[in-house]
Amino acid sequence: MDTCKKGRIYSLTISIVQYKSRLAKFTNDLNNSSSVEFLAHQTRIQIMLNEAFGSLPGFIDAVVISFYNGSIGVEAALTYDPTSTVTQADIQHDISARNPFMGSEYKADLNNTIVQQVCVAEFCYNGGTCEPSVEKYPSICKCPFGFDGDRCEMQTQTEEMTTKQVPARSNTLAIAIIVISAIGIVISIAVLIHCSRIWRRKIDGRKQPTAGVELKGVKYSRGSQRVTT
Predict the structure, then answer these.
(1) According to the 3-state scheme, what is the secondary structure of 176-212?
(2) What is this structure's pTM?
């Protein structure tokens, strides 16, 4: 069974219908977790829940997470040791039998109390990992690659699709390498041709014939005829 981090967690939803013998009214301050009203209700209700469920085997703690509109709705989380034998049905039964609010300034509608185990066994499909939300403790699935959905029930990519995509990328890379190589070869050939032309021009310039050369009073002209001056 999933233990969801620190233990086996049960979300608890309770509706407070009366407070101090008056109709319980939700106020905007109950939306602010740092307000005096929020902290006062949170502290009182947590104490009552811990006293009511503390005797159950494996009980760790009860935490009030938030309040919601509807008289005064309470969202709480009960945490048990992963090895505890307590079930969701046990908690539901104990709420009615023990009545956590008996003798207090609160009166709750226990008939509409909802208990749900967070991250029950095999809640997430296809190898997903279940973790409780930090706000209201619903079951949240972290899905492996290729799956999506609230419980990882939807397959977004198959192995066949992945296999087909790999050759496509490989072919694109191979074509790019070939094109770049061909461009490099063409540029190299062009450079060699250009250098060859420059080299030939230099050689041809050195071989140009002269009209005549005069050495120490002897003048040589074309046809190797010597003329004495």
Answers:
(1) HHHHHHHHHHHHHHHHHHHHHHHHHHHHHHHCCCCCE
(2) 0.59
